[in-house]
Amino acid sequence: MIEELVTAGAATASAGALYVMAAARVVKQYERGVVFRLGRLLPEVRRPGLTLVVPIVDRLHKVSLQIITLPIPAQEGITRDNVTVRVDAVVYFKVVNPSDALVRVEDYRFAVSQMAQTSLRSIIGKSELDDLLSNREKLNQGLELMIDNPAVEWGVTIDRVEIKDVSLPETMKRSMARQAEADRERRARVINADAELQASKKLAGAAQVMSEQPAALQLRLLQTVVAVAAEKNSTLVLPFPVELLRFLERAAPLPGAQEAGASPASSGQGATAATAAGAGEAADPEALAAQARELAGEFPPGTSGDVVRQLLEGLGEKGVPGLVGERAVSEAEPGTPGTLAGAEGEGEGEERTDAEGADGSGDAPGEGGMRG
User: Fold this and answer.
1) DSSP notation for 135-204
2) Of 74, 139, 182, 224, which has the maximum CB count within 10 A?
3) What pLDDT sits at residue 330?
4) Cross-strand pairs, 163
């Protein structure tokens, strides 16, 4: 009797052990268990840990709640501005309702993949090329909303969507490179123009300061000479005073004086540039020197002004024409009345006439001068 009880207890224990082994299931921490009993879904979702199911009657399906990374294959499309592009992306999603993920959709991974591909094509057609290249955050948000709307019914939520790469045709890449180069050149020119404007303002301020202190201009001249001489050049460049150029411009012949000297109608009036010269008379050196001193006094004091005054006074003392009358010398041809050259021509004609009268040619002395 005792042996029968022991045998029955051992059989019961063995059967219980086999039942436990057949019914025991382990659900991991990141998983949830969904039980189907005779094909019907049980409302209770099994939590992580050890759980038991009825052998042969129950079927336990484990669903992972981890975030799943799903790459989207590259999709070709035409943007709204008619540019062919090739875009690929990646989707991050997770299951929030294990029962819906198993019951409402056959394969939620494949469903999310197909929805992501169609949404990516749609977002390419609605966007422009510039948005795909520079405004990806907005496109990512729009793509996430397009995928998340149907995925909510499947017990899946979209964590985020990222556009990985945008491939462009080679011709489009070259065109964009030329556009970027032109834009950089434009910015460079604007920066150079701004720099020139600022430099001109600084130079204007420096010129104003130097005008108040004439010695500063001389110091600047010496600095320039030192800078040029430091290069060990055989040629030394010195600045030319602007006042001397102005003096030479004033000393240039006036067009009105030549026209007045060449026109017979104005022979009675005479040229304004040679009022002090008559027939057979030459320019007075003292008058030239006085005129040079008068012109030299018009220049402001300073290094350049002193140089110009000395030069003008030297020219006047040497009797250089061009400083009498209206500060111009008429360079008309000899014989033109009303000019210094005409007066010289008359003097030469008078001398030739006197010589011919002395030789007995029949003309009276001085007649040539009268004809002149």
Assistant:
1) -HHHHHHHHHHHHHHHHGGGTEEEEEEEEEEEE--HHHHHHHHHHHHHHHHHHHHHHHHHHHHHHHHHHH
2) 139
3) 37
4) 89
3-state secondary structure of 33: strand
What is the C-alpha separation between 251 and 256, in angstroms, rounded?
Answer: 14
Amino acid type, 343: A
In angstroms, the CA 53 to CA 46 distance is: 10
Based on the number of CB atoms within 10 Å of its own CB, is 48 exposed (0-12), middle (13-18) or buried (19 or more)? middle
Axis crossing angle, helix 214-229 with helix 170-212, rounded to the nearest 10: 130
pLDDT band at 173 (very low <50, low <70, confident <90, very high): confident
Q: Specify the higher pLDDT residue, 350 or 32.
A: 32
CA dist list (Å): 64 to 28, 35, 43, 101, 180 = 9, 15, 18, 10, 48
**Confidence tier at 17 by pLDDT (50, 70, 90):** confident
Buried/exposed code over 242-252 (b: 16+ C-beta within 10 A; e: otherwise): ebeeebeeebe
* 12: number of Cβ within 10 Å: 10
* Winning range, highest mean pLDDT, from 162-176, 300-314, 355-369: 162-176
Q: What pTM was computed for the model?
A: 0.49
Pull the structure tokens for residue 197.
């404007």
Long-range CB contacts for residues 296-299, cutoff 8 Å, separation at least 24: 299/243
